[in-house]
Amino acid sequence: MSLIGKEIxxxxxxxxxxxxxxxxxxxxxxxxxNLLFFYPADFSFVCPTELEDLQEHYNDFKGEGCEIxxxxxxxxxxxxxxxxxxxxxxxVTYPMLADPAHRLSLDFDVLSxxxxxxxxxxxxxxxxxxxxxxxxxxxxxxxxxxxxxxILRACKFVDEHGDRVCPAGWQKGDDTLAPSLDLVGSL
Length: 187
Description:
The protein has a 7-stranded mixed beta sheet with strand order 2-1-5-4-3-6-7. The protein is 27% helix and 22% strand. The chain has 187 residues and is an alpha/beta fold. The chain has helices at 26-29, 47-56, 58-63, 76-85, 103-107, 145-160; strands at residues 12-17, 20-25, 33-38, 66-72, 96-98, 120-125, 131-137. It has 6 helices and 7 strands. It is globular, with a radius of gyration of 17 Å.
């Protein structure tokens, strides 16, 4: 069953950000765009490169009205320890959500039965808390923040202009398509 259009379940988890712990709940995500960035584990290999890449694009995401949440099954204490010990992760200023009880990983269907860790997955949520984009990579394949930003912008455009769609490779400001009978077979 597709996760597109699914409204996320109510949740409340601990997070680490800006040298403090705080609870984050579904209500905190509503009313804005969100990117939930699941990764397998703290103190791993590909993950710190991804979190650093997201941080380098964080202001662009915030400029689009989107918050980033990194999510793993590690505790908020482990997130702090990793943040304090890793040069790459130490740059991160967006919230790192702790999912040791697997509530988020199960709701988003990304919990690996083999090891109890989250798959390398990313979800874009609209302001109503519904999934509008999802992708899952194998554990050894890192993701690209610039591409995630492009997808976010396309999702926002389609949400705002329901009569237009974004072709492959679309960038903000590019031409879009207006689906119609005239386009059938002409592209």
